[in-house]
Each structure stands twice: as structure tokens, then as C-alpha cells.
Amino acid sequence: MTGSGQGASLVLVVLVGVLVATGVMLLLERNLTRILLGVILLSNGVNVLILLAGPAGGAPLAGTTPVDGMSDPLPQAMILTAIVITLGLAAFLLAVAYRSWLLTTHDDVRDDPEDRQIVGLADRDAALSEDPDTVGPRDDPGGPGERR
């Protein structure tokens, strides 16, 4: 919103871009503290974006501003809801990071061993599907995985 109320200012648009980009970058990290900061920055960026979506105007209180000059109260209500949701999510992530630090003295998210096993099985299946001489799994002796 500009001072004249005609549209979004370039500074606020750039601020939204920086907050969202930095938040997404931090969300992709493996450290829970950085993930928490990423959620907070991303949320603030989206809140500013929602604020930019509504036209600027007077306070939406009856009797204080003409109806045509009132701002839309919906963006402010949505931002207030988003702030509450972000606060709850931040508290949850902070508790998870603290619990992880108590148990392992760090808050990095580790690879799940079952995920690695699934990736290994998927790689094996992909290799088998590329080989036209096999019909099924190779580790099944006498089964359909034997070579023809």
C-alpha cells in the first residue's frame, strides 16, 4: 500500500519476496532451529502479501468512515488467524527441537532407515524393469526372477 492508497509499494513487494525466499531456503535445511525460523519468516511474508491484497482505506467501524472509504476487514482477520496458527506451529517445532536436543544433543533431522530401505527396493525394482531378461526379483531362487 502506498501513501496515496493506489497500490502496493515496491518496498513491500520486495520484502514479501525476501521473506518468502529466505523462509523456503531455511525450511529445506535439516536443522530444526532453522526450520522453525523458516516457518516464521515464510508466515510473515505471506501475512504481508495478504495485507497487500486488500485495498487501503479507513477503519471499518460504523459511523467513523463512509462505507465507500472503508478498508476490507477480511485480510486483517485472515492475518490474525495466520498469526495464531504460526504461533502454535512455532511452539510445536520449538518443543520438538528442545526434545531432540535433550535426547541427542543436537537438533538435526536424521535420515529414516526405513526410507533408505524403500529407496533401495525402488532402485532394485527399477534395475529389474530395465533388464528385459528377468521377470521378477533375483533373490527368489527358482522363482520367476531367474534368467530365461
From TrEMBL:
Q: Which domain of life is it from?
A: Bacteria
Region annotation (Disordered) ranges = 121-148
**Entry annotated with the keyword Membrane:** yes
Tell me where the transmembrane regions lie: 6-28, 35-57, 77-98
Family (UniProt): Belongs to the CPA3 antiporters (TC 2.A.63) subunit C family.
Residue spans making up a coiled coil are none
Q: How is this protein named in the record?
A: Na(+)/H(+) antiporter subunit C
Q: Where is the composition biased (Basic and acidic residues)?
A: 136-148
Q: Which InterPro entries match?
A: CPA3_antiporter_subunitC (IPR050601), NUOK/Mnh_C1-like (IPR039428)
Membrane topology per the entry is: Multi-pass membrane protein
Write out the entry's keywords from A to Z: Cell membrane, Membrane, Transmembrane, Transmembrane helix
Task: Indicate where this protein resides in the cell.
Answer: Cell membrane
